[in-house]
Amino acid sequence: MSVTRPVVGITAYAEPIVRGVWQPVPSVFVASGYTSKVVAAGGIPMVIPPVDAADDDWAQAVLDRLDALIIAGGADIDPQLYGEAAHPAAQEFRPERDACEIALARAAVQRDLPLLGICRGMQVMAVAAGGSVDQHLPDLVGHEGHSPTPGAFAEHPVVVRKGTGLHAILGDEVVVPTYHHQGVRTHPGYVAAADASDGVLEAIEDPTARWRFGVQWHPEAGDDPRLFDALVHAALR
């Protein structure tokens, strides 16, 4: 891999998109915030589409080409993967994407590849490690402040736990872009790294890893580049 411009893989959506007179077109895409922040940090973004029948061999072959990995946000994970029935508020599941991202997360851990999970990506990291997800946060916290407006990011403060690797990157507190109705409940192998004021877990990390963090918010949608800068720096090391 490049020693000056590391290649950062970003997992992708696979959804139909309406483009002009083409309606709808099956497409693979990521929000441009992911790619632009990787480029600004000095990395080369590589989009990873979900595929049929992903397995460990496929994941290892993908990671052979990468210096770091971002597991991006997206739809809810199928709760059967952590032994639960679906909540009535669950979104339509994406089985191919679930399989691909869980395989990639496990392979990245095996290789100690720098890994950043964003929103759904943090949940994928937890489920890949044998953890579980709270399927509808309003049932637990009594409000919809983590995604109050359909199709629009909200903001709220997050308190970063002292002594964590995330604290070394972000400091005591950050105001973050948020859009999620689920959250990580259990996360074997990871420690809690940040929290919202209502008690929702906002970040996890593996202190034994070279660089491995999951955040429940959407840094690609904000103005703070520090997580992407730190990821690309870790990839260079």
Automatic annotation (TrEMBL):
GO terms for biological process: polyamine catabolic process. GO terms for cellular component: cytosol. The keyword Transferase applies. GO terms for molecular function: gamma-glutamyl-gamma-aminobutyrate hydrolase activity; transferase activity. PROSITE patterns: GATASE_TYPE_1. Gene3D superfamilies: 3.40.50.880. This is Putative glutamine amidotransferase. It comes from Rudaeicoccus suwonensis.
